[in-house]
Amino acid sequence: MKTTVVIEEKKFFTYDSDYFNIRYDSLSDYFRIDCGVLFNLSTGQLYVSDPYMDDSTAVKRIESFPNNFYKAYLESGEILHIQCDTAIDNYIFQKIKNNPKLLHKKCNLDDFEIIFGPNNLTLFELHRYTKNRDPALPRDSALVIRLKESNSTYYLTILELGKVICKREQVSSFEFLGNKFLCSLKNGTHFNFEILLADYMQQIISDLFELYKIKK
């Protein structure tokens, strides 16, 4: 996805990224998509920022044009020119454009982060915390699932209530089926976990995997 910042009809800077980082934190009710620029969905408002800076600007409106081209008008007066070159680009930006309030819903207990590279999934990480979550106290993990790609090989790490179930074990196959994460290791072990996400989040994950044609 290529994003150009335009100020007073002059091009100021261009971001070009083929990686997408999608993250949801249920405690702070925070959803973000990093695709060169950082889109944050928080308190029912869509914001945009430079990933390397702390400040952010509210998005006033987004307009669609032919050939998967968009303009995002910011409260700062800047305009983002966004060109979506692939089906992945367009899908993700349609979610940013059309569903900021829909995306901003509680996802029960599970936090997650997903990173997609140009051709594959590079990271899926899920954290489930105990139900007695106190924002003032350190959060206790009930479940951690980390699926990470390295040199075209996937590895799985799982912790339950702080206990290591498996640590960087090589994966033979994995799949997301609705609210299920299925994974088989090369050592013959199989895992079947329910993912506690809202239906629309499950749909986003399923759609992205289908668009990437990830069949592992």
Main beta sheet, described?
A: 16 strands, antiparallel
Uncertain spans? none
Mean pLDDT metric: 80
The helical percent reads: 10-25%
| Amino- and carboxy-terminal Cα gap | 25 Å
Domains, number: 2
Range of strand content: over 45%
Q: Return the string of H and E elements.
A: EEEEEEEEEHHEEEEEEEH
Helical run tally: 3
Shape: globular
Q: Care to count the β-strands?
A: 16
In the sheet with the most strands, the strands line up as 2-1-9-8-7-6-5-4-3-10-11-12-13-14-15-16
**Radius of gyration, rounded?**
18 Å
Pfam family, one: DUF8184
InterPro entries: DUF8184
Describe the structure.
This protein is mostly beta strands. It folds into two domains: 2-103, no CATH class; 122-211, no CATH class. Helices cover 13% and strands 54% of the residues. The protein has three helices and 16 strands. It has helices spanning 87-98, 100-103, 199-211, and strands spanning 2-7, 10-16, 20-25, 30-35, 37-42, 45-49, 57-65, 69-74, 79-83, 110-116, 121-129, 141-150, 153-160, 163-177, 180-185, 190-194. It has a 16-stranded antiparallel beta sheet. The mean pLDDT is 80. Pfam families: DUF8184.
